[in-house]
């Protein structure tokens, strides 16, 4: 028999589900199954479960025709489970590496009905807070089991389903199921503890309880939080039916504690609902108060209990407001003490910056220009990428929109003829940023830019991610040195739209940049040119670069290593040319971060052409017969052309540890793989660059990442964002 059945419900967790599944399947313990329940999720959660099932027979996906909610979805997984034990893990949480052998050993050694494991709250800002385990059990019980009557303090552990592993036959014998509605854990976890003959505690952190910035019900206001009362009524109903004695005072105290927790969270109960919520608390206090009383907590918590008992809402509310005001005053005082008045250097540049700041703030009070769209790319490096493709489509489909580009002064000469622009940092720059209706960028605009009501910010991004991005970089501090994540989130909160090229990008951006924007999963506008390119287009580009029609062109485009500034992968152009032969040509392009370091190698006649300063990378893709890259998003764009791609990853092990990656590029490559330079040369010598195996890998890669790049992505963006059309 399988030891543990994991039941993983999935609803709107596409950004986190891969991490959850990987954390289970990657454990050094294999006697498990994973039942993934797609609760009619409107995102790609179901597709992710199906994808994992194809790769790992331990994954059994279930797709529901309609959304039933977390509790019923868990029941459906439970009905399909065959394991001796069941562990309900939510799709946005994840297991701690290496924890499962310890869980399995404890289950086999003690045979508990319920085994409670420790956890941490993993906040979105990479801060972890411990559970109450240490407070409840200052002396861990160890490998012993007990009943709830023996250790009633167990009730003070968090009452969730995911921090306990439950014997399946025990659930079936007692008829324990999850009830529908919010707070479904209440009417499952407490009865399970009351009915269990053997409770165990594993004093080891086994699960990361994700505290999401957006999307969690604990951050969702509404009257559905009143469903907590229904769940607690079920708990007391079961106690009466089972004739449970001796535990009522402790359970009652937990109920009032939980009600106070829900009411005290300003993200849950709106101000107009607090008085009715308190009234129901008082009614339940009177209804379920044990005849023998209960242990009222000391101090301020006890005062809250007494006010609930008396039904004194006005006093309760006034004390709560006074406490909040006091806390705010104390925080203000602490900030004031920490604040150090800076010494202002009265230079001409400082005065100019101050004047431009004042000008920008004044322009914010003028009406938004209903026809103005501002475009930028790569920190004002010029006219390129997705914003350029959207700009061109808007000129064709929405000519009433006036497009203005922001560029650095040293990049003005690179703009195509007829493109209206302003120079970054100028007075005109501040004016268009303040008054534009649309702001389109593939990176973030500066921190001083304010999101005005009525303005629309479009984040196009500039690649499908291999390396981790955004908040996920917090786990890889070597690659995130100097990053201000709070500032990043303030910038992300300005987004109205996030453009993605495939469902994988949608999932990763949702996790890396949690905010309330709308995702437009439409393909990458910059790839429209690649999808629609003809042989004539390719010939023109090659002629402009001085490349003959019969030359065999390899484009080498490595990515930037933030954690290793100045480092370059080992690559010898002359040895590569020797392997390519007399008709070989090598194009070498550095990352755009190095745009001020670009120095041509020399005349193109030697077979090597430095194309780092070439602005339209799409032209280089068209010219090339093969792309050689490492962890760059270039591979996803180039794959649109269905030409050979070679992954050259000489520092793969170090890179994924220091910088972090979203998927195993060596296990799912777009073609042949080389881990050192001699291996790269062998790929070309042997013909592996485009053999049958490489072609199969490229086909699978294209199916996963390039399906939406059909040549009309920019049009889809323009119709939705500028013309308000809904597909």
Descriptive terms for the model:
9-stranded mixed sheet, 26 helices, 7-stranded parallel sheet, alpha/beta, 39% helix
Characterize the largest beta sheet: strand count, sense, and whether it forms a barrel. 9 strands, mixed
Mean pLDDT across every amino acid position = 91
Contiguous low-pLDDT stretches (5 residues minimum) are 340-345, 592-605
Question: What overall geometry do the principal axes of the alpha carbons give?
Answer: globular
The helix content, as a percent range, equals: 25-40%
Please work out how many helical segments DSSP would assign. Answer: 26
Report the structural category. Answer: alpha/beta
Proportion of residues in extended strands = 15-25%
**Number of E-state strands:** 22
Oligomer designation: single chain
End-to-end distance:
49 Å
Radius of gyration: 30 Å
Protein name: Bifunctional glycosyltransferase family 2 protein/CDP-glycerol:glycerophosphate glycerophosphotransferase
Organism: Micromonospora aurantiaca
Keywords: Cell membrane, Membrane, Teichoic acid biosynthesis, Transferase
Domain Glycosyltransferase 2-like: 5-167
